[in-house]
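Q: Structure tokens for this one, please.
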Amino acid sequence: MKIITVFSLLLFLGSSLWAQPVDHRLQKQLSDLVKDLHGDIGVYVKNLRTGKSAMVNADSIFPTASMVKVTILIGIQDKIEKGQLEYHQPLEYKDSLFYAGEDILGSFKNGEKIGLNKVMMLMLTTSDNTASLWLQSLAGTGTRINEILDSLGLVHTRVNSRTPGREANRQQYGWAQTTPREMGTLMEKIYRGEVISKSSSEKMIRLLGRNYNDEQAIAEIPPYIFVASKNGCVNASRSEILLVMAPHGPYIFSVQTKNLQDQSWGNSNEAWVLTRKLSALCWNYFEPRSRWKP
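A: Here is the predicted structure, written as tokens:
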């Protein structure tokens, strides 16, 4: 009986960690906006000043696509914190690292030198996949990254590719998987200095504030507002995570999609159009024109 009681208490405490006051008005507006998408979508929005959140399918699991690079960044930063890597450490590129695509790093010649910090920049700013896979291996494989994510209380956010025992998950979700709420929670933890250390979290925020791919959710935020972000897409999925340092209080915007009928790659893709509308909704909701003076 005591074991059952303790177990029940743990379940209660675990569920209470996710309990947040809900912004019902914003939640209805989000729900109305996403209802006609030809595919599956999850949205998580949290005002970090008030603590109120709004969500749609926020605990459903989606492919991360390139949003996985946030978790790889954490793995590298953990190694730097422990003294196992150095931020400006010189690295030597090898042809065996090449991953086919439009990557900058993939155009390097065998034996060329590049600093670890610049490889991190390429992974986050231009979403360079050759750089990302190199960094994943330097971080100690996906298994080590997943151990860090687990220590942060994240139960669904996991690296799948090149990670022993996660082949079935890779087949279903690709490189990695997460939920809108967990990706938003991870970004919030980084913002609050709770990932690895305060200084490591601050460095990650700086690195995440240099996104070259700024034509979707970021495009709806005024250019003089700091945004830490990462987006990702594969054929049937378009996703994005933003920390917006809005004047009246920072907020998190996390949107993920899968099973999309529209798999086109231009900005007119249905999911990207919807992402921009959702981002604009959130910005104007938290920063209405009557309050905002640029």
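A few notes: Residues 2-18 form the longest helix (17 residues). The longest strand covers residues 40-47.
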